[in-house]
Amino acid sequence: MKDVRVIDVAPRDGLQNEPGIVALDDKLKLVRLLTTSGVDEVEVTSFVSPKWVPQLADARALCDALATHPCKPAGVIYSALVPNDKGMDQALEVNLQAGRQVLDKVSVFTAASETFSRKNTNASIEETIERFRPVVARAKANSLLVRGYVSCVIACPFEGAISPQSVASVSRRLADLGVDEISLGDTIGAGTPDTVVAMLDAVRAALPCEWTSDDLKLNLHLHDTFGRASECVVAALNAGIRSFDASVAGLGGCPYASAPGKPAPGNIDTTLLVRTIRDRGFSTGASVDTLAVAAAFARSIVSAARMSSG
What we know:
15% strand, alpha/beta, single chain, two-stranded antiparallel sheet
């Protein structure tokens, strides 16, 4: 039995901030490698405007290609970000055209920082929550799970430290909206074990009892900017968290945490996450050996895309 759920976000969060554009066939191969690695979920893309995220302009084409792929292993989830009703239209069309559930889950995203929310979504926190209402309703009507992302749960690149109570307030709004899970994102990798636990305690205290009794409803999304992500995983495990995001080869990284010519380290590497989980006596279904193959491929396609863009 798997104790801890592992979600690999490399095809979306890992690639969206890359300066180069990875070819569709390479993205497809990366998703397939991750699908067979034993992770529980792969975040395959985001249905955002190509104007803002040209790296993911092929979202629909990627999902249509995945629809022709032999069925993924039982229990593995494919998810995609949908920022609004228009994005939801595309996600639903993928499944409708395929005649089956290619995408199992959609994700909406807000922040615990007003400034970050406005810069990242061009909307206030309140406006993002209202924007999600029809998206969540349509997802439920079409048997899709819904994740709610909260960015900047520890600190914001513009506002500095974020209070745990602010994170708790936004999390409660998402729970009341009807999302199935909440992913708490340390967007710039500022977390320490103490600040992560304080944030988790505040969020749990604010949520309904059905949330606190289900240890898979809360997910932690860590960035390894300062090399502390593994320590934060241990603290979160000790605090009862049993679901984590990661990115194979550590791809990703918030552009706001970077300096000119020096990109910030990205999400916690999936292999590091899996090793940390196992070192603490927990289990996952992910294979370190298979992840190594996926990581090598991910590095190669990102390197090629960077060279072509430069």
